[in-house]
Structure formats: structure tokens, C-alpha cells
Amino acid sequence: MDLALSKVIELRESGFQFLHLRDEDGQLDRIMAFKQRRGYIDSILFWSETEARAGRLPAVRDSQRAAQAVWIYEGPLVEAVDRLLDLPEPGSRNAPTLMKQTASDLAVVTTLPFKLKLPPGAIA
Fold this sequence. Notes:
By secondary structure, the protein is of the alpha+beta class. Helices cover about 20% and strands about 30% of the residues. The protein has helices spanning about 1-15, 75-85, 110, and strands at about 15-20, 30-35, 40-45, 50-60, 70, 70-75, 100. A hairpin with a 5-residue loop joins strand 3 and strand 4 (about 50-60). Helix 1 (about 1-15) runs parallel beside helix 2 (about 75-85). The protein is globular and about 35 Å long. The N and C termini lie far apart (about 35 Å).
């Protein structure tokens, strides 16, 4: 647990913001951390030390289609945080750019526990 907690602290110190997502009964179900980086959102969703999903998604997307990630990893929390933090900066030579997998559960705007009211044509 100490290593997993230190990785969560590392995310916070790297500028990630956190959301505590609750189930229908109001109990904590999972935690999401996210950070916008040069046109992309790096995010991680975790349920426990052994179950996490991390990804990088374009910050702007077609709301009529499921979100697609340019990079995604599923596995233990510690490994997911390490891989996410080791990703090259968007726009750099080795940064992933090709859409690969559907990742709607990592799309911050669709996962927020409230609705965003935006004027027509606005970008969230």
C-alpha cells in the first residue's frame, strides 16, 4: 500500500487533478486523476492497487463517437502510474499520436459526475 500511495502522491505532485467517483449508494467506487498536456489529456482511473486503466486522449474530440486513446494501459496501479508519467511529452518525437482503442471511461468530460452546460459551438 505504501508504494501505491506514493505513486498517487507522485501524480498529484506532477500536476494531476483528482475526482472521487461514487456508486449509486454514494460509496467511493473509483478515483480518476487527469492532466491536460498540449492538446491531450493524460488520465488514470483506478479501483484498487491491482486494477487501474491509464490513457492519453485528444483533448478535443467528436462528441458523437466514443473517445479513442492514442495510448492505453491496463494493470496494477503502480505500473500504470509509472507508464503514464514516462510517456513522452505530446508533440515530442516519440509521443504516441495514432488513435488506437476506445477509452470512453477515461474521457474526463463524459465521466464527470455532473453535466457541463455549454453554448452551441463551445469546446469543453
